[in-house]
Amino acid sequence: MNVENKTIIISGASRGIGRATAMLLAQHGANVIVTARNADELKQLETEATQGSVRGKIVAIAGDVASESDMAAVVRTALDQFHRIDVVINNAGYGVFKNVDEISVTEWDDLMATNVKGTFILTKAALPSMKAHGSGHIVVVASDVAKRTFAGGALYTASKYAQEAFMGALRKEVRSFGIKVTGVYSGLVDSNFHAKGHGHETSKNWLKNEDMAESMLFIVSRPAHVVIDEFMVHPLSQEY
């Protein structure tokens, strides 16, 4: 589980899976640049890491993954402070669950901008540095619905299928540069992603944010010659 001194960027890190992953990686000695739109929550995370017993460092920079200039600033921060980028974890995303004829065009555009375009923008911004160093790791936190659909999930599953296709093509483009690409396909996670919120009775047997963080630590700490192309994880209580 060696991530000592690795430079890792995590989007959507103000809460949930992203936040838990940032703390765990920093505890194991990584230098983590966290980004999300909520500047206050990011600053709380940075402060908590500073006051806690973490071996690495957490640097917060607020931004919107759908903004090319914001993500360029995140990458510049990583390079200015740590001189390289080892891992990017594309975690930012949200869901809208409605029947097709109930989804507005604005809802479609906004969700696709975060879930799909955001993955593209942050990945693109980090790739030149990774190529220059001849190594790197792009992780996309998708969902098991990148491989299945359900009624009311047309918009969300479309965004996850798009991420799946993006990863498939990217994997073929960058492997010769020594860059890994991993898709993470999780089932139900007890987080604020769901309408009933974190800690609700109905989600007590789901995966925890900490379970996902430990999965992420495992994925990004493999030896240089090992790549986990796909990582699917579910709570035992969920049929798949």
From TrEMBL:
Domain of life from the UniProt record: Bacteria
Region forming the signal peptide: none
Pfam families for this protein: adh_short (PF00106)
SMART domains: PKS_KR
Domain Ketoreductase stretches: 6-185
Protein's UniProt keywords contain Oxidoreductase: yes
Family per similarity comment: Belongs to the short-chain dehydrogenases/reductases (SDR) family.
Protein name according to UniProt: SDR family oxidoreductase
Organism of provenance: Spirosoma agri
Taxonomic lineage from the root: Bacteria, Pseudomonadati, Bacteroidota, Cytophagia, Cytophagales
